[in-house]
Automatic annotation (TrEMBL):
Membrane-related topology note: Single-pass membrane protein
Binding positions (Fe cation): 355, 358, 369, 372
Organism: Thalassotalea insulae
Gene name as annotated: lapB
Full protein name: Lipopolysaccharide assembly protein B
Coiled coil region boundaries: none
TPR repeats: 180-213
Pfam families xref list: TPR_7 (PF13176), Zn_ribbon_LapB (PF18073)
Keyword Repeat tagged: yes
Taxonomic path: Bacteria, Pseudomonadati, Pseudomonadota, Gammaproteobacteria, Alteromonadales
Amino acid sequence: MLELLFLLLPVAMGYGWFMGRNSVKQRDHSAKQDLSIKYSTGINYLLSNQQDKAIEYLLETLTVEDDTVEAHFAMANLFRKRGELDRALKVHEHLVRQKHLPTKAKQQAAFELGKDFLTAGLYDRAESMFHTLMKSKVFAQRSLTYLLQIYQSTKDWQHGIELKKAIVKSKDKKLLHTLANFYCELATIALEKDQFIEVLELLESALRCDPNSCRANWLMAEIYENHQQYNEACQCYKDIYTQDNEFFPDVIDKMANCYHQLDADDEFYCFIKKVYDETGGSSALIKYLSLIEHKHGHVKAQEFMLSALKRRPTIQGFKHFIKMQMNQPEQDHENLAMIKELVSAYLNIKQRYNCRNCGFNSSTHYWSCPSCHDWETLKPVRGLEGE
Ligand SMILES: [Zn+2]
């Protein structure tokens, strides 16, 4: 009930002001009477606990003036915060209908109404509200963000891409990153239909929006690999490492295969050594160990593994160490196999991916976090139980 006083406060002030003026003429007298009736009727509704009637009555009878518009916004926001969306909608719709308000207040009313519709899941109405604000200096960028949010929820990638001109003009990195992922979504659909040229064009558009899009390079590498263009695929995998090395563990095997196809295993192992030196990741370590074993024998590889595990212990590294032990003829294979199985079972119940934005954990990889909906934030877990 208290929030309705936001509306009544300016009325009360006006009433007091009228009462304080003894020298008013006849025309002021009738206005004073009118205002006092509205004020007391509103109070009566409130006192009888009929909030909805009070809101409707006050919105219908009291005019929104420049000095009371902020009170209306504050009250509507309070309603929205308390989850009373229908009440917030009523106030914002009322404000949108006020033709005499200054442009900024009118735009703010449309923007807030768009947010109400979005919260209520009325995407069509929210979309048209945000579209009306595309030329607003104050609200255009925020409206773009909400429009992309709507198109992401409805998987309407094409409509999102139609906003490209405005997004590029905004130069907002987060919006450009989201747009690049919209292109990647379309590229994934085209990839399933084997539309090679279309996929490449969509991915190039994605990289023009966001040159650091790991996802675009990932898909690009997949296309090249499928078409046996291994040099190009290797370059894409290298780009992924440069762009965001936290994604790299998931492409190591694919990259190893491409170098192998090119008969360039040595080149791959030089690259992996650099990756291990720079990141210390367990996937890079395991790949690098194959090189040591191949060049310097099993004993050297085992020594390297032990010192690496002492420096930076990981369960994944420990599992690989057991596997190395199992390859030795003199070892107790039965017990080692049991330990390896237990470690594998332990790793299987652990979530492999973690969202760097909201902390959401998942065993499956998603390009858009199912919890916070940010793009490319789900990456392999780091630390003892991860990389
Ligand atoms: Zn998240």
